[in-house]
Design goal:
It contains 13 helices and 21 strands. Strand 20 (425-431) and strand 21 (437-444) form a beta hairpin. The protein is of the alpha+beta class and 467 residues long. InterPro entries: YdbS-like_PH.
């Protein structure tokens, strides 16, 4: 009999058996969080059923004697009990084991699944404290691998157990809080609330609901029952406004970026607190963006590009390092996350890339590119530094500066539309691991081809040196 391949034997050996003492269960109080969510959903559904029964019956006494209401209440209660019981069983069947080279997670009631994450592939670990878990003194741990695999979540653990597991996965740091890099003050978060498009949209909704309710009361032109219609509409609009305001504060207030050796520590949140730790060596690039509503104070958002952090609205999942930063803070955060970034070059790109003089490695679209992009072409520029490529793109609504680390590019491509071909323009695209890509649009076709050859030669030399 022949021996199995080394990689297969290694993977089987790395998975401990079910009776191995290294397997650890989630905390038993995790079931309370699941039950709390079921009770909250059941209470909301029950309130809606009672309101509809009251509208049909007219009085509380008549509504309470309706058989349909009793059956609906019993069904909702049974559903809540079933979901809570299922959550308890699911929590007790889920566990994890940490071996020297991998983290293993098992779960499932009917179909058992086992997930293995290699420690060397882990790029970030998030320790989250959502409000329901904080009530019972527990913490959620999210492990984000960098090989395209899905995030592995352990919900929930004791805080000290989660911190110990994070340390074993990423290695100990020199300081729990790290060296402070950028802190978003509360005053800036309040200014962000006043400039948020979501908050302004919710405020318009409140104004519209108030107008409808006043019209119903004064003229009866809008046929909405006062209690079940206008007041509920205004109440829902106010709740939406409060949620929009709280969402901005939750993402920005107290946001803190710190450096701890080769680790970056990001902390934020008011009700749902989160502490993220990521390896600087896993950062493939940076995206520094600025939206038109924030142009007056000159705020930028700094985001780290990582292999598994694309396609989510969550700030942690999207690698946000600083949500609201001044140009100086954006440069500071960028140079800490990617030390190879030339700070003076990045500051010039953030200030006005279209006004930078030609030469010194800076390439801009030619004047004829204005026929293709009248506004954006004036703000496009690209510079090939020794260790990174810096590219700026600008439009009417959004400006963006991208930093791509050399050696982290999987593919290079040049594309041309029909108008670009007539104008002898081309767009250079750099594809990075995962779904990330950086485009440098509307360059002169000769400049684009020359830059492509330079980048390809550099990537080839780096891969040769690595082997």
């Amino acid at each position: 009999m022949t021996d199995p391949p080394a990689e297969v034997a290694l993977s089987v050996e790395a998975a401990p058996p079910d009776d191995d003492p290294r397997w650890q269960r989630l905390h038993a109080r995790s079931a309370l969080v699941v039950a709390g969510g079921a009770v909250g959903s059941g209470a909301a559904l029950l309130a809606r059923v009672f309101r509809e029964a009251l509208d049909d019956a007219g009085t509380w006494s008549a509504a309470l004697h309706e058989p349909a209401l009793r059956w609906a209440t019993a069904g909702i209660v049974l559903l809540v009990v079933a979901v809570s019981a299922g959550g308890w069983v699911s929590v007790r069947r889920r566990g994890y084991a940490l071996t020297p080279g991998a983290l293993h997670v098992r779960s499932g009631l009917v179909t058992r699944t086992r997930t293995t994450v290699r420690v060397s592939k882990i790029q970030a670990v998030d320790v989250g404290l959502p409000l329901p878990a904080r009530v019972v003194g527990l913490t959620r741990l999210d492990v984000r691998p960098g090989d395209g695999a899905a995030t592995v979540t352990l919900a929930y653990l004791r805080p000290e157990e989660a911190e110990a597991l994070r340390t074993r996965l990423l290695g100990p740091g020199t300081d729990e809080r790290g060296q402070e890099v950028v802190v978003v003050p509360m005053s800036r978060a309040r200014r962000a609330v006043r400039r948020s498009l979501g908050v302004w949209g919710a405020a318009v909704g409140v104004l519209g609901a108030a107008v409808l309710m006043v019209a119903d009361i004064v003229t009866s032109a809008v046929r909405l029952p006062l209690v079940s219609g206008g007041v509920l509409l205004l109440g829902g609009a106010l709740v939406h406004l409060g949620s929009a305001v709280f969402g901005v504060l939750e993402r920005a207030a107290g946001f803190r970026l710190a450096r701890d050796g080769e680790l970056l520590r990001v902390a934020h949140g008011i009700a749902n607190r989160s502490r993220r730790t990521l390896r600087r060596s896993r950062v493939q690039g940076l995206t520094i963006s600025r939206w038109r509503p924030w142009n007056t104070p000159g705020w930028w958002s700094v985001q780290a590009v990582m292999a598994s952090d694309q396609g989510s609205d969550d700030d942690d999942a999207n690698g946000v390092l600083v949500p609201i930063a001044t140009p100086e803070e954006a440069v500071r955060a960028a140079t800490v996350a990617v030390p190879a970034v030339p700070g003076d070059l990045l500051a010039a790109f953030l200030a006005a890339p279209g006004r930078m003089p030609d030469g010194a490695g800076v390439i801009r679209p030619p004047v004829r590119a204005r026929w293709r992009a009248p506004v954006g072409s004036r703000r496009h520029a690209v510079a090939d530094a020794e260790h990174v490529l810096v590219a700026a793109r600008g439009g009417i609504v959004r400006r963006e500066v991208a930093v791509v680390v050399h050696g982290r590019t999987e593919a290079l491509a040049i594309s041309q539309g029909w108008l670009q071909r007539r104008l002898r323009l081309a767009t250079l695209t750099l594809h990075q691991p995962g779904t990330a890509s950086t485009q440098v649009p509307h360059l002169d076709v000769d400049d684009a081809r020359r830059l492509l050859r330079t980048l390809a030669a550099r990537e080839g030399r780096r891969r040769t040196d690595a082997t």
